[in-house]
């Protein structure tokens, strides 16, 4: 491939953890950010952002998308070109839907394309994981689908997790932010053996439950002892929304990523009722949420 002057990269939102899979499993959703990079021969940086939360995105060198772009050039040991970046935001910021992963993946993929793809997809993935610090958002954002990542001796093993077509994700996105770093600060650095065993068993059950679409298994499997018990307190109304979702027919409800978005898994028959119940429950707590059913994106980042 040859060097190009402009590239547009589309990157999906992701929902990480899925209950017991803290820091190792995530799924790409059909909700997107679009990033256009244009080489500027005179040098310099300009960033323009459109979309609902546009004014919340940094437009100087600290912009995460640009930081990922720079990281690519540092990695290939070349001087970065001047660039004009146009961001069309579709993924809400700091809500637990992997907005930072879209920026990291977007910046790396765009730079790689501009330079004629000197890096393989798996090299881009390793760099993205190193930047984000955990694999569960950047891996599905790059590759699409539901993915489990495990660090091997030399690198990462990525496993494609089959997702039964009857399982519908419903996301309830509240009108407040919770940064991932803040939500990680409340987690203990050590866990008990009992909690480790609990999550190991439940993640195993979840993988098989997602594959065959068995409601009882998914219901049990969505429980977690490693992060949700500590993070619930950061999300007002968590218990009320959980009860409403399950009463309306959800298999279960979890925190999407680090929150505050809440994710219910359900079936087609119940998805509308589950969405309405989650919305109402949060409204009763004084929180307005954008609640919607989303299907899985299976393509990942595309340019
Ligand atoms: N499109 C984007 N362009 C630049 N920076 C972004 C973009 N999306 C997210 N970010 C950065 O990532 C931060 C949110 O990251 P984080 O707290 O991990 O939340 P999330 O769960 O959405 O990934 C934003 O405050 C912003 O600094
Ligand atoms: N495993 C991470 C996932 C963070 O996801 P995000 O969408 O909130 O960035 C964590 O739980 O901290």
TrEMBL record:
Family: Belongs to the GHMP kinase family. Homoserine kinase subfamily.
Protein name: Homoserine kinase
UniProt pathway: Amino-acid biosynthesis; L-threonine biosynthesis; L-threonine from L-aspartate: step 4/5
Keywords for this protein: Amino-acid biosynthesis, ATP-binding, Cytoplasm, Kinase, Nucleotide-binding, Threonine biosynthesis, Transferase
Protein location: Cytoplasm
Chief localisation class: cytoplasm
PANTHER family in alphabetical order: HOMOSERINE KINASE, HOMOSERINE/4-DIPHOSPHOCYTIDYL-2-C-METHYL-D-ERYTHRITOL KINASE
Domain GHMP kinase N-terminal: 63-145
Catalytic activity: L-homoserine + ATP = O-phospho-L-homoserine + ADP + H(+)
GO MF entries: homoserine kinase activity
Domain GHMP kinase C-terminal: 213-283
Name of a matching Pfam family: GHMP_kinases_N
Classification via HAMAP family: Homoser_kinase
Coiled coil: none
Protein role: Catalyzes the ATP-dependent phosphorylation of L-homoserine to L-homoserine phosphate.
Domain of life of the organism encoding this protein: Bacteria
Listed InterPro entries: GHMP_kinase_C_dom, GHMP_kinase_C_sf, GHMP_kinase_N_dom, GHMP_knse_ATP-bd_CS, Homoserine_kinase, Ribosomal_Su5_D2-typ_SF, Ribsml_uS5_D2-typ_fold_subgr
Residues reported in the UniProt entry to bind ATP: 92-102
Listed EC numbers: 2.7.1.39
């Amino acid at each position: 491939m040859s060097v190009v002057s402009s590239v547009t990269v589309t990157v999906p939102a992701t929902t990480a953890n899925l209950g017991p899979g803290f820091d190792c499993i995530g799924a790409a959703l059909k909700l997107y950010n679009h990033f256009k990079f244009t080489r500027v021969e005179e040098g310099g940086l300009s960033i323009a952002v459109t979309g609902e939360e546009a004014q919340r995105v940094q437009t100087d060198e600290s912009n995460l998308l640009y930081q990922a772009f720079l990281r690519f050039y540092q990695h290939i040991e070349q001087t970065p070109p001047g660039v004009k970046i146009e961001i069309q935001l579709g993924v809400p910021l700091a809500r637990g839907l992997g907005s930072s992963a879209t920026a990291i993946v977007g910046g790396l993929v765009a730079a790689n394309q501009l330079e004629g793809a000197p890096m393989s997809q798996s090299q881009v993935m390793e760099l993205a994981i190193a930047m984000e610090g955990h694999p569960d958002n950047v891996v599905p954002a790059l590759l699409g689908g539901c993915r489990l990542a495990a660090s091997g001796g030399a690198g990462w093993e990525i496993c494609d997790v089959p997702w039964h077509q009857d399982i519908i994700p419903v996301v309830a996105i509240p009108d407040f932010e919770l940064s991932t770093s803040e939500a990680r600060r409340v987690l203990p650095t050590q866990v008990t053996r009992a909690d480790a065993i609990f999550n190991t068993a439940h993640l195993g059950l979840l993988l098989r439950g997602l594959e065959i679409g068995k409601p009882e298994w998914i219901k049990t499997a969505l429980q977690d002892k490693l992060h949700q018990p500590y993070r619930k307190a950061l999300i007002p109304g968590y218990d009320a929304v959980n009860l409403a979702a399950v009463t309306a027919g959800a298999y279960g409800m979890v925190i999407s990523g680090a929150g505050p978005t809440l994710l219910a898994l359900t079936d087609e028959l119940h998805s509308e009722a589950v969405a309405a119940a989650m919305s109402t429950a949060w409204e009763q707590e004084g929180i307005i949420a954008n609640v919607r059913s989303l299907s899985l994106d299976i393509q990942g980042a595309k340019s």
